[in-house]
Write a structure and sequence with these properties.
6-stranded mixed sheet; 13 helices; alpha+beta; elongated
């Protein structure tokens, strides 16, 4: 019987003249593969369903490199093509308007209290040591779990944010009421608003982008909206309707650099030297313009100059332009260059600092700033070099820069 069975299995078939046992093995293998494929499809489908049901709020708020933008804005932070297209931190607050796109804007902006300010930015940090006497009263905002977009109509959700109608934002800002203005400048006006889900947001109504081609505007906003970095603020969404162009950011009721140096938050205390340098270093690391500059709307070297102005502002505690000072001191950059040339560097440090920086730290910051504001754009460093310069223990002219200098000589 056994020999007969073996004989049957050894018989050749009409299918390519294969033996019966070979065909059985092939069919059994195909069956196993189909079962495994079916199991893989089921597992994949379940996984994708879970991902799709994750709320937006579960997107990591902080990550090591480019993963999440914390939109803290205490002032006007937004993205303009002309002046700010990458907020390194835009925080919207109640009184002052600032923006901090990595593309800094140096034009002065008018605030609620009648004061003016220039390209400064906001910075949130868990390290309270950044502030001196009043730092405890101004605690940094913890990362919240709830998303400002939670509860909004799903049909309006974009891959990275939300598409708003003009009506949505009119309702949120009480028809763009003057009472809700938290900042304004050449780029536009920033309003505080409340969405239908109760979330408070900052709405930036662009003035210099009116009527910009819809496709072009969408490309710019999409580029910004997908950026994720722990030192960047997050864009929640936008509105394109007729000639209206609006951007929506998270509203964070916290101070920004300009406020801590010159404005409403200074009564809480003064930023320490370490705190100021940490802000500037975080800003430099979050710079994203090089990848976006291919559009032709951003100029990296111009942004480096603007960053240098903010660095000088942090060192001195002075406004970039102050008409109340003598003629030779009105322009901050020119005054700084004059003081350094006269070997009076120690005198430029903000007098409000309780603990002065070391000579080496001051020299490092000053030389970095001076390179950033070099009149010759080609001589300005790249932001990656700025980061190394600020982190180095000694004044670091990057090796590439040294080679270029030697070649020129």
């Amino acid at each position: 019987m056994g020999s007969g069975f073996n004989f049957d299995l050894s018989k050749k078939t009409h299918i390519f003249h294969l033996k019966v046992w070979v065909l059985v093995t092939i069919f059994l293998g195909i069956f196993i593969l189909l079962v495994l494929l079916l199991l893989w499809c089921c597992i994949t489908r379940k996984t994708s369903r879970k991902k799709n049901t994750l709320p937006i709020s579960l997107i990591p708020n902080v990550s090591g490199e480019i993963k999440e933008i914390r939109i803290d804005q205490n002032s006007a932070n937004h993205v303009d093509r002309d002046s700010d297209i990458f907020n390194v931190q835009e925080k919207y607050g109640e009184k002052d308007s600032d923006k901090l796109l990595v593309h800094f804007k140096n034009d002065k902006e008018k605030n609620d209290d009648g004061s003016t300010q220039s390209g400064s930015f906001n910075y949130l940090d868990k390290d309270d040591s950044a502030l001196e006497s009043g730092d405890k009263n101004c605690s940094s905002h913890p990362i919240t779990v709830a998303s400002p977009l939670a509860g909004l109509p799903e049909l309006s959700h974009l891959g990275w944010g939300h598409w708003f109608t003009l009506r949505d934002l009119e309702v949120a800002t009480n028809k763009f009421s003057k009472d809700n203005i938290i900042g304004e400048g050449g780029y536009g006006i920033v309003y505080r608003g409340q969405l239908i889900n109760g979330a408070t947001v900052a709405v930036k109504r662009l003035l210099n982008n009116l009527g910009q081609a819809e496709k072009e505007f969408r490309v710019e906003v999409e580029a910004i909206g997908h950026v994720r970095h722990k030192n960047l603020v997050r864009l929640l969404g936008y509105c394109i309707e007729g000639t209206h162009r609006l951007l929506v950011y998270e509203y964070v009721n916290n101070g920004n650099l300009e406020q801590w140096l010159h404005g409403a938050m200074s009564h809480h205390g003064h930023l320490t030297w370490e705190g100021r340098m940490k802000i500037l270093l975080g800003t430099a690391k979050a710079y994203v313009a090089p990848e976006y500059a291919s559009s032709g709307f951003l100029n990296e070297k111009s942004d480096v100059y603007s960053f240098g102005v903010v660095l000088v502002e942090a060192i001195t505690g002075r406004d970039p332009v102050d008409d109340s000072l003598p003629v030779h001191e009105k322009n901050l950059v020119d005054w700084l260059k004059m003081m350094v040339a006269a070997k009076r560097s120690e005198e430029v440090v903000d007098p409000s600092l309780e603990t002065r920086p070391s000579t080496s730290a001051l020299k490092r910051a000053l030389l970095t700033a001076l390179r950033c504001v070099d009149p010759n754009a080609e001589q300005r460093p790249a932001m990656s070099q700025v980061v190394r310069m600020l982190e180095s223990e000694e004044y670091p002219i990057p090796r590439e820069g040294r080679k270029k200098q030697k070649e020129k000589h």
